[in-house]
Write a structure and sequence with these properties.
Jelly Rolls; binds thymidine-5'-diphosphate
Length: 144
């Protein structure tokens, strides 16, 4: 399988239904997101200065949205790093499998909405950074 890189993490502009009384952003499974949505979860009440994430997923794909407020997502593919600032409910960061991520700098009241391609599975997580690097290297070496 092709190794994923931070350049594969793209920010999608989601549809906005405009109304003087406010906006709506609809998201469909295998529509605006390129996978079937199996799970939705959200992070909220994140204390100032907290870091979330700190892991990669073997198979899970996600769309990450700042449903309110803002935060930064630090992306790492084992070779390159990139930080994406999310601050609009109509922008979604598309995360392929096997990207290490940390979520930092949550604004007060910041809510991180996540649409995920699989149900929760602890075995899909890589929580050790050295193990992540080794797995990345294996995939890259396997392609040489
Ligand atoms: P985790 O994904 O590590 O949180 P974050 O990346 O935001 O820091 O999850 C924290 C805990 O919550 C962990 O014990 C697993 C549990 N959890 C579920 O049970 N179901 C879920 O859908 C998620 C995302 C987490």
């Amino acid at each position: 399988m092709k190794p994923t890189t931070v350049d594969d993490c793209s920010v999608l502009e989601l549809p906005k239904i405009e109304n003087p009384a406010g906006r709506i952003t609809p998201i469909h499974s295998a529509g605006e997101v390129p996978f079937d949505i199996a799970r939705v979860y959200y992070l909220y009440d994140v204390p100032g200065g907290a870091t979330r994430g700190g892991h990669a997923h073997k198979g899970l794909q996600q769309l990450i949205v700042a449903a309110s407020g803002s935060f930064d997502v630090i992306l790492d593919d084992g070779t390159s790093r990139r930080t994406v600032h999310l601050n609009r409910p109509y922008l979604g960061l598309l995360m392929p499998r096997m990207i290490w991520r940390e979520l930092v700098n949550f604004s007060s009241g910041g809510t991180c909405l996540v649409l995920a391609s699989r149900r929760y599975d602890a075995a899909d997580y890589i929580r050790n950074y050295d193990e992540f690097l080794q797995l990345k290297k294996k995939v890259t070496d396997g392609r040489r």
